[in-house]
């Protein structure tokens, strides 16, 4: 039998949500109906996981991270404190007639976070954006367009300033259009604004 699920006192986990073995949901976190949380995840204090959100294995949502539906987070993703994954392209409280908008009055567009990527503290990811595998979004960045695999993006609006490897450290140049991770030795080839991992020597 695997490791048990831990739901701390004060957490609010809907009975229709699914939490994988070995995962922990900390105080004041909320996991809504039909959300799926994989194995060995950490849902930090005060974090929010919206209805139907899908979270893979070994994902960390730090304190007060907000993940709105229908977001998808693949395995090994990190979401920093108070980061927000939004879902409404044209947010309004009321419709043009002044009536309070309801769930059927708008179309939610979820954020997709690919395997191993990291979202820094207080970063904002706008609706429909995909952050690529092992990419890194700096703290406080506002991301309004897709982020390539292995890219490090910073600022408002976010822009790529470097490439990073699986270890999270900036890659170093290793010949024309080639990059190398100083920690793991992994090598990459840059083609325009994309990075392709090369076979190990």
Polypeptide structure, described:
The chain is mainly beta and 201 residues long. It has strands spanning 6-7, 12-13, 18-19, 24-25, 30-31, 36-37, 42-43, 48-49, 54-55, 60-61, 66-67, 72-73, 78-79, 84-85, 112-113, 118-119, 124-125, 130-131, 136-137, 142-143, 151-154, 159-163, 172-173, 178-180, 187-191, 194-197. It is built from no helices and 26 strands. The N and C termini lie far apart (39 Å). The mean pLDDT is 96.
Explain the layout of strands and helices:
Layout: E1 6-7, E2 12-13, E3 18-19, E4 24-25, E5 30-31, E6 36-37, E7 42-43, E8 48-49, E9 54-55, E10 60-61, E11 66-67, E12 72-73, E13 78-79, E14 84-85, E15 112-113, E16 118-119, E17 124-125, E18 130-131, E19 136-137, E20 142-143, E21 151-154, E22 159-163, E23 172-173, E24 178-180, E25 187-191, E26 194-197
Parallel strand pairs: 1-4, 2-5, 3-6, 4-7, 5-8, 6-9, 7-10, 8-11, 9-12, 10-13, 11-14, 12-15, 13-16, 14-17, 15-18, 16-19, 17-20, 19-21
Antiparallel strand pairs: 21-22, 23-24, 24-25, 25-26
């Amino acid at each position: 039998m695997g490791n048990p699920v831990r739901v701390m006192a004060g957490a609010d986990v809907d009975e229709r949500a699914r939490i994988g073995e070995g995962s922990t949901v900390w105080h004041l976190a909320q996991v809504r109906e039909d959300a799926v949380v994989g194995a060995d995840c950490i849902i930090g204090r005060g974090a929010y996981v919206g209805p139907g959100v899908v979270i893979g294995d070994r994902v960390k949502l730090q304190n007060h991270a907000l993940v709105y539906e229908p977001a998808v987070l693949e395995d090994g993703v990190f979401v920093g404190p108070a980061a927000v994954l939004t879902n409404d392209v044209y947010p309004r409280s009321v419709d043009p007639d002044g009536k309070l908008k309801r769930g059927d009055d708008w179309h939610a567009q979820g954020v997709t976070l690919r395997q191993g990527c990291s979202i820094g503290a207080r970063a904002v990811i706008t609706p429909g954006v995909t952050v690529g595998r092992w990419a890194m979004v700096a703290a406080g960045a506002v991301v309004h367009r897709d982020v390539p695999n292995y890219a490090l993006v910073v600022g408002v609006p976010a822009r790529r300033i470097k490439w990073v490897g699986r270890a999270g450290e900036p890659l170093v140049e290793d010949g024309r259009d080639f990059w190398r991770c100083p920690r793991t030795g992994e090598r990459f080839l840059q083609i325009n604004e994309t990075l392709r991992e090369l076979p190990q020597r």
